[in-house]
Amino acid sequence: MTFSTLIHAQPKASARPRRSLVLMGGGARTAYQVGVLLSIAAQLRQMPDTVTGTGFPFQILVGTSAGAINAAFLASRATQGLAALTELEGFWRQLRSHHVYDLEISPWMQSHKFLAALNLWRNVRAHGAILNTMPSVDTLHRAISLPGIEQSLAAGAIESVAVTASSYTTGVHWTFCQTAANADAANTPWERPGRRAEFQPITIEHLMASSAIPFLFPSAALWVNGRREFFGDGSMRQVSPLSPAIHLGADRVLVIGVGQPQRSGLGGSDVDRREPTLSAIAGHAMASVFHDTLQADVEQTQRVTRTMRQMPPAVLEYLPYRAVDVTSVQPSESLDSVAKSCQSHLPRSIRSALSGLGALRGGGALASYLLFEPVFIEALVTLGMRDAQAMAPGIHAFFTNP
User: Fold this and answer.
1) Other beta carbons within 10 Å of 86
2) pLDDT of residue 204
3) Distance (Å, rounded) from C-alpha 201 to C-alpha 188?
4) Which of 6, 54, 343, 397 is deepest in the core (most CB within 10 A)?
C-alpha cells in the first residue's frame, strides 16, 4: 500500500528524491525480502535509465534484526548498482542453519527429547540464550565487507546506512548510523523518549546485537556514550520503525516487512481454540516483537495523514512538516504456515530440543525464525517475488513519480 505522511522537516531539501529502503527483522523469515528485491531489480531494469541510472536505487538503508544484515550486505556492495540486489540472493541461497547458530548438545542426547530440552534450559541459565551464535560471526565476516560500506558511502552510491538495537542495560532503543563525511545528516544524532541515535561506523558487533532474537540468541556488547552496554534484537521496543529513515532525510520510503495479515497461531478453526500450545504462545510473543510495531507505525501514519488532509492549506503552510511517501510490502501468505510444512528440516538437535518442550506442536511460528534451510528460503524468495510483482504499479510509482 502507498500513502503519504507529514513529519518534521529537519533535513534540507535534496535535488533528487532521497529513497530509503527499510528492512524489518524476523530471523530466517527475512529471506522473503530477497524475493521482493529480486523482483524490484527486474522491474527497474525494464524502466528508463533516467529513473535510477545505473546506480544503486536507494540512498538510505535502514535495517532491524536480520533485516540489518541484509541492509549491511547491500551497503557493502552498493557500488555495484542493481547487481547488489541479486548478490543478496546468492548469500541466502548458500546459507544453512549451522552457518547461523548451533546447540551445544552431545549426539546421544539428540534422540532423547526430554534430555535435549533439559540441556536447552541449561544453556539459557548459563548464557541467557538457547543457542550459540558464534557461527554467525564467522559467516558475517566472510559475507559483509566493512571497508565496502565505507567505499559505497565515499563514492556516493549511498548516503547513509543504519541499524537498530535495543539495550538490555538501559532499555533505550538505539539507531546506529554511518554516513558519508559530507552527508547532511552527519553529526546530527536525535533523541526521543526511549530511543536515541548515534553516529559510528557499523561493525559486525552491531549486526550481531541487532539480530539477537530474545531468548534464542545471546546479547552482544556495544559502546555507547563512552560505556559498554548489552544489546538485543532491534525489533524490541521499536515503536517507530520508519523514524530512522525519516531522520536521515528520506522523502520516499520502501519498507519490507515479514509479517502477515493473519497469523496461523492463535485463533482460527475450532480446533485452534483449545488451550494454546507453547508454540502458539511463542509465535504470538514473537509476532508482537517483530511485526506489530510496523503495523502500528503504519496505522499511526495513516491517522496523521487523514488529520492533515482535513486542515486548511493556509494552516499547513505555517507548519514545519514535509510529506514522505511510503510504500509497504508484506507477505500475502502466512509464513508460519510455510514454516510448519518445513520444520522437519531443522537441525536434528534443535528439532529434538524444541520438540521436548512442545515448542513445535501446532503452528510453525517459532520454527520460522530458525529455518535457515534451502526448502524454507526457496519458498520465501518465491513468495517475495510474487508479491512484489503483484505490486508492480505501486513500485513503479515509487521510483518514477516526481
Assistant:
1) 15
2) 97
3) 15
4) 343
- In this structure, are residues 20 and 61 in contact, taking their beta carbons and an 8 Å threshold? yes
Per-residue b or e along 208-225, where b marks 16 or more CB atoms closer than 10 Å to that residue's CB: bbbbbbbebbbbbebebe
What are the cell numbers at 57?
A: 536505487
Q: H helices of 155-215, where?
A: 204-210
pLDDT tens column, 107-129: 544 455 555 555 565 666 556 67
Inter-helix orientation angle 374-390/392-400, to 10°:
70
Q: Which residues contact 6 (CB under 8 A, 6 or more apart)?
A: 304, 305, 308, 319, 321, 322, 323, 324
Burial class (CB in 10 A: 0-12, 13-18, 19+), 284: middle
Q: Which of 69, 375, 358 is nearest to 205 (CA)?
A: 69
pLDDT at 134: 93
**Residue 18 — φ and ψ, nearest 5°?**
-95, 105
Q: 66: helix, coil or strand?
A: helix
The answer to pTM > 0.70 is yes
CB contact at 8 A, 31 and 377? yes
| Of the listed ranges 238-247, 261-270, 335-344, the one predicted with least confidence | 261-270
**Beta-bridge partners for 252:** 19, 325
Residue 264 CB partners (closer than 8 Å, separation 6+): 283, 334, 336, 337, 340, 363, 364, 365
Q: Taking CA 133 as the corner, what is the angle to CA 131 and CA 134, rounded to the nearest 5 degrees? A: 135
- Here the cell at position 383 is 513468495
d(CA 270, CA 268): 7
Burial of 296 (0-12, 13-18, 19+ CB in 10 A): middle
C-alpha cell at 42: 527486474
**R_g over Cα of the chain:** 21
Cα 143 versus chain centre, distance: 17
* Beta pairing partners, 175: 164, 197
- CA atoms of 349 and 256, how far apart (whole Å): 32
CB 273 within 8 A of CB 267: yes
Q: What is the pLDDT of residues 14-67, one digit of tens each?
A: 557 789 999 998 899 999 999 999 999 999 998 876 566 668 999 999 999 999
